[in-house]
Amino acid sequence: MKRLTLVLAACVASAQQHYTPAPENLKSREWFQDNKFGLFIHWGVYSVLGKGEWVMNNDNMTVAEYEKLPPRFNPTEFNAAEWVAMAKDAGMKYITITSKHHDGFAMFATRQSDWNIVDRTPYRQDPLKMLADECHRQGIKLFFYHSQLDWHNPDYYPLGRTGHASGRPPGGDFNKYLDYMDNQLRELLTNYGEIAGIWFDGMWDKPDANWRLDRTYGLIHSLQPAAMVGSNHHLKPFEGEDFQMFEKDLPGKNTTGFSDKSEVGALPLETCDTINNSWGYNSSDHKYKSTKELIQYVVKAAGNNANFLLNIGPMPSGKVQPEFVARLHEMGEWMRKNGESIYGTRGGPVTPRPWGVTTQNKDKIFLHVLDWKDKVLALPKLPGVRGATLLGSGQPVQLRKEPNSTLILFPSEERDPIDTVIVFEKVK
Ligand code: H79
Fold first, then answer.
1. Which residues surround ligand 1 with Cβ inside 6 Å?
2. Ligand 1: nearest atom to the Cα of 279
3. Do residues 424 and 388 lie in contact, with contact meaning Cβ atoms separated by under 8 Å?
């Protein structure tokens, strides 16, 4: 009996026990799934070096060397209203921003240590407070990305798989570190108004540690029951989580190799990706995805019943580079015309196919044809629908019903190279 109790204790130590989401949390989950498209922002003192957010680890920098960055970080051109307006113009409905990345540097006014933007930089202001106020003003929801992995805090010990060059002395107290992190989360969920959720990352650095998720997730849910908890641990969801994310992959796919132990659960889903190949500002990364690729990504995500969280890494000045701004604006133009087939939908009745995906709401099914090479497109039979039209123009689309399928005949010159959206009305 004693042994069994110990085993049970070890299991529950990592998950919130018997979690029943509050009614307002369930409402947030619906809101999240209806709103589909968010802006991810990776911004920190690493942007000064322009080599991405992993530079401390990748360049084997010690804590002492890395501490020379904050005095050089002075984003006087940061304008919260502009960032929020840019996200809205892109058709995005929420923002997820790094409150702390793996370098441990708090981009907000924390009182838990002076390793933060107010105490260590010449800027001396709290950009997250300005952003939160502006999000509330402009009707955009705000999530905080908070790294559980920390390359700076001396109590992040024993070390995990990364951050070995930091030069921290051995012997820190991991529970003290978790107290520190919980206290920061308490600040984030107390001082910034309504927060839509917390996006954790970095647990994979120490997969076998006791992360006290029960305590951390319980704290978040007690402070703001509507706030959604998710963690990029690449595993199937733990008790106490409210959504599940997939980094650089559609749910169930594993092109990155991160998701081999993941399983698609029953929670709302989200996939995130970068515009070039970097999360944090990288001045030499010019491999930009085209607007077409990015639009097709959001469409495929919706067809896979998932949200799309698209990243920008702003510059140390606080400005966003023009290549990102242009793509976001073009995505917004597409969303303004075709948003009805994305917002408020769930994955459609036909599973994702090589040619595209389907989405649906209570009245309509939307067929998104992304890659249409053949003369006709054969769909499995769609029961309970009548006639098909083109989204936007309302032009009728010719169908031919076969015994086991519906053929769509549509002149190739009228197909849209990005997404031909065909609407089927559901028969009530
Ligand atoms: O915040 C962005 C990245 O900095 C962060 N997640 C996104 C959203 C990220 N961290 N790591 N990665 C992305 C790549 C993951 C690499 C891993 Fe591993 C492979 C983690 C575990 C296996 C490399 C090898 C790091 C630890 C062992």
1. 42, 53-54, 161-162, 201, 204, 232, 247, 258, 272, 279
2. 2
3. yes
